[in-house]
Amino acid sequence: MESLYFLVPCALVFIGLAIKVLFWAINNGQYDNLDTEAHRILFDAGKTKKDKPPAVTDSADDTPDDKNPLA
């Protein structure tokens, strides 16, 4: 029974802090646009095959690579 004298005020303080953080997040616009981030994963509109940079070769001459016997 004595533990309730400690746990009930702690729970009330915790609930008060959680409500304060919730209203802070709402007022700062954290929940304004929930759909954009979800659609960004599905529709990657900014990256296409045309946007990729050209391939860069390591050497300027066309000598075969010593590590690759098939080249």
Question: Could you give a quick summary of the protein structure above?
Answer:
It contains 2 helices and no strands. It is mostly helical and 71 residues long. It has a domain of 27 residues.
Features:
71 residues, mainly alpha
Largest sheet: none
Query: Count of DSSP helices?
Result: 2
Overall 3D form: elongated
Mean pLDDT: 79
**Proportion of strand residues:** under 5%
Query: What pattern of helices and strands is seen along the backbone?
Result: HH
What's the total number of strands? 0
Helix fraction bin: 40-55%
Describe the structure.
- By secondary structure, the protein is mostly helical.
- The protein has a domain of 27 residues.
- 45% of the residues lie in helices and 0% in strands.
- The protein has two helices and no strands.
- The termini are far apart.
- The mean pLDDT is 79.
Helix and strand arrangement:
Elements: H1 4-27, H2 35-42
